[in-house]
Recover the amino acids of this structure.
């Protein structure tokens, strides 16, 4: 069987529902993970996804901010919603599903952006981001006996040199400062995760999933960052057949500043 899994920071699911439906109609993934849904659970447009076959839903939302959702054609169980740091943010949801004879725990994350100033003393948002990453270091890909793992989402860090348009110019910009990149790479190393997006496209190839709204012509300037990620436990990595970054979605009507990332695994 083939498993197709998409992840996308949609920047308001209700505002951008038409382009989410466009993605589902064109790509038809088995599972879609959304971040920054920006709505309370009771206002989530669940019926629109049910109508397209995504009957199994794990939603963790809040009014106007943050929010994550797993929308699946495959049954979900053991849904877990966590508030890392106990600050009242809806930034993580996970669920179990089965594919290829494996039980898989799927984590969907929206890591704090961290504000504009990379100073944890003067900028509480940046301090919160660093604390969040520190807590993620305790998450292991083999954390549950007999269960494989996939972690996706907007992690708001471009960890590698070629995950940004200019490594030198970005070193003091939030999302690519050394304390952030080293922290995220430590999460991968300590948790035993595999960066699936770089498995078939290693550096020095550039990979971007985000282009700023501030750019007059985002495509021409192409000053992107890889803020969205797909990781897995080592046992799933050999099953990866490809990862597609839908760059064209940045130019869709009323777009998010992020684009969908789709991973395909064959069992």
């Amino acid at each position: 069987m083939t498993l197709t899994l998409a992840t996308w920071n949609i920047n308001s699911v209700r505002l951008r529902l038409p382009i989410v439906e466009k993605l589902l109609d064109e790509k038809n993934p088995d599972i879609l993970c959304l971040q920054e849904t920006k709505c309370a659970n009771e206002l989530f447009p669940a019926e629109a996804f049910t109508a397209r076959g995504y009957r199994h839903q794990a939603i963790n939302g809040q009014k106007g901010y943050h929010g994550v959702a797993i929308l699946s054609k495959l049954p979900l169980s053991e849904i877990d919603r966590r508030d890392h740091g106990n600050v009242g943010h809806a930034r993580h949801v996970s669920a179990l599903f089965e594919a290829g004879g494996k039980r898989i725990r799927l984590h969907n994350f929206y890591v704090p952006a961290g504000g504009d100033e990379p100073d944890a003393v003067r900028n509480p948002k940046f301090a919160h981001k660093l604390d969040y990453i520190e807590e993620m270091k305790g998450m292991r890909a083999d954390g549950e006996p007999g269960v494989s793992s996939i972690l996706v989402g907007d992690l708001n860090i471009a960890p590698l040199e070629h995950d940004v348009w200019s490594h030198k110019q970005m070193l003091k910009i939030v999302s690519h400062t050394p304390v952030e990149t080293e922290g995220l790479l430590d999460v991968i190393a300590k948790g035993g995760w595999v960066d699936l997006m770089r498995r078939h496209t290693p550096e020095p190839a550039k990979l971007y999933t985000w282009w700023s709204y501030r750019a007059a012509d985002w495509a021409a300037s192409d000053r992107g960052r890889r803020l969205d990620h797909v990781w897995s436990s080592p046992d799933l990595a050999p099953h990866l057949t490809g990862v597609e970054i839908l760059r064209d979605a940045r130019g869709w009507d009323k777009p998010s500043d992020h684009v969908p990332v789709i991973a395909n695994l064959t069992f």
User: Anything to note?
Assistant: The chain has six helices and 14 strands.
